[in-house]
Automatic annotation (TrEMBL):
Ranges of residues in domain Major facilitator superfamily (MFS) profile: 208-433
Protein name: MFS general substrate transporter
Family recorded in the similarity comment: Belongs to the major facilitator superfamily. Monocarboxylate porter (TC 2.A.1.13) family.
Membrane spanning residue stretches: 45-66, 86-105, 112-131, 137-161, 173-192, 204-224, 245-267, 282-301, 313-331, 337-362, 374-395, 401-423
Membrane topology: Multi-pass membrane protein
Lineage of the organism: Eukaryota, Fungi, Dikarya, Ascomycota, Pezizomycotina
Segments for region (Disordered): 1-37
Gene source species: Xylona heveae (strain CBS 132557 / TC161)
Compartment(s): Membrane
Gene3D superfamilies to which the protein is assigned, alphabetical: MFS general substrate transporter like domains
GO molecular function: transmembrane transporter activity
Main location: membrane
Compositionally biased tracts (Low complexity): 17-33
Length: 433
């Protein structure tokens, strides 16, 4: 890649941070050790990675599993409810995970790490136990959508913030490992649900998932420790950031990207059963397969992004995701859909793992990154909120073709916005070259 178009990646040890961890990791004589005393390894540091991995697994991982619940609700529990209405449950959960981070970020900065971890753990586990008792749509919306969503929002900031305070040169690798927990959760939980639900019923299958979550989150409470406290409080909003074209266009890209990106995750099981000739049992495994692909898609591109720049890696991966979404239209065989699921999972995974470091690369100062992260995630959350329900409504009225085109076009618009953000940033980079 030529020098003038190579994305500038901050060389500061905090450059690959996520959410509010930029401020929380900044060294201060009164609150932190010098940068060269950051552990960058060792048992305690890797225990934080393990804890963060578990938090991702039980927040994003649960959201990535919603397609299994969506299929069951459509076929059994909520037969009288449309696919669009059912998908509001999962989209609300995902939206709250991102939007609540705007409020929990300052609480994390103020030193309330264990409060967030405790409250979030209680809410997600309590929400899943209550989900196991639900028989009506409104009950599921309150338990699985609202309660689990609020709990996930409390856990999201700790999951992305803690690792960066323990690592410098290994930061991207450690963060990638932690983020891969979301993909693994999307593999484990749908399989657990699919295998247990026919044998022990919906209630106990959901309770087993809740008990698994409880055990892992108790482990997080036992091992996760704050190494440094932030030197200053974070502002909630910075409206002037939207005067900068690169940041604004990337924020718009997140909105459209998340609006279309999760449609295959929610509807892959239903499509496989109705359009590829798969048996019901095999079609249920399409969601674990697509999530298995995303596990690697959140580690390998993150590793390469240290050399290319996050936005330079995000653009081609997102473009391939859009092309795969268009290819989805022509897939009607079992083998073809399995290959599509693996590839789409891999390349779409970068749109979850790379935006935080992309915001860092588009920010003029590390002191502004936490606030900008929250603002950007708000738009991503709104995209998640409306994307899958709109796709469900299109499916009801126009069939699978309309849903597939909505997915592909949304991701394509996101790629176009990323390109504008990239090349509007280029003049500044050329001036520094």
């Amino acid at each position: 890649m030529s020098a003038e178009f190579k994305e500038e990646v901050p060389t500061d040890p905090l450059a690959n941070t996520t959410s509010s961890d930029v401020e929380s990791a900044s060294p201060s004589p009164s609150t932190s050790k010098p940068a060269d005393e950051i552990p960058n390894g060792g048992l305690r540091a890797w225990l934080q990675v393990l804890g963060s991995f578990s938090l991702f697994l039980n927040t994003w991982g649960v959201i990535n599993s919603f397609g299994a619940f969506q299929s069951y609700y459509e076929d059994e529990l909520l037969r009288h409810v449309s696919s669009s209405d059912i998908s509001w449950i999962g989209s609300l959960q995902a939206c709250l995970l991102l939007i609540i981070g705007v409020a929990t970020g300052p609480l994390f900065d103020a030193g309330y790490f264990y409060v967030l971890l405790s409250v979030g753990s209680f809410l997600v586990v309590f929400g899943m136990f209550m989900t196991s008792l639900c028989t009506e749509y409104w009950q599921l919306m309150l338990a699985q959508g609202l309660t689990c969503g609020l709990g996930s929002g409390c856990l999201f900031i700790p999951s992305v913030a803690i690792v960066s305070t323990y690592f410098t040169t290994k930061k991207s690798f450690a963060t990638g490992i932690a983020a891969s927990g979301s993909g693994l959760g999307g593999v484990i939980y749908p399989i657990v649900f699919a295998r247990l639900q026919p044998r022990i019923g919906f209630g106990w299958a959901t309770r087993v998932i809740a008990f698994l979550m409880l055990g892992m989150l108790l482990g997080c409470l036992a091992v996760m420790r704050v190494r440094v406290l932030p030197p200053q409080k974070r502002r909630l909003l910075e409206p002037r950031a939207f005067l900068e074209l690169p940041f604004t266009m990337f924020t718009v890209a997140e909105f459209f990207g998340f609006m279309g990106l999760y449609i295959p995750f929610f509807y892959c099981t239903a499509y496989a059963a109705k359009n590829t000739g798969m048996s019901h049992n095999l079609s249920f495994y399409m969601l674990p397969i697509i999530n298995a692909g995303s596990v690697f898609g959140r580690i390998i591109p993150n590793f390469l992004a240290d050399k290319t720049g996050p936005l330079n890696m995000l653009i081609p991966c997102s473009l391939i995701s859009a092309l795969l979404a268009f290819c989805w239209i022509a897939i009607e065989s079992t083998g073809g859909f399995i290959i599509f699921s693996l590839l789409y999972g891999f390349f779409s995974g970068t749109f979850v793992s790379l935006p935080p470091t992309t915001v860092v690369s588009l920010s003029p100062s590390l002191q502004m990154v936490g606030t900008r992260m929250g603002m950007s995630f708000c738009f991503a959350g709104l995209g998640l909120l409306i994307g899958t329900p709109v796709a469900g409504a299109i499916l009801q009225s126009s069939g699978w073709l309309g849903t597939q085109l909505f997915c592909a076009c949304s991701v394509t618009v996101a790629v176009a916005c990323c390109l504008v953000a990239r090349f509007s940033k280029a003049p500044a980079l050329m001036a520094k070259a």
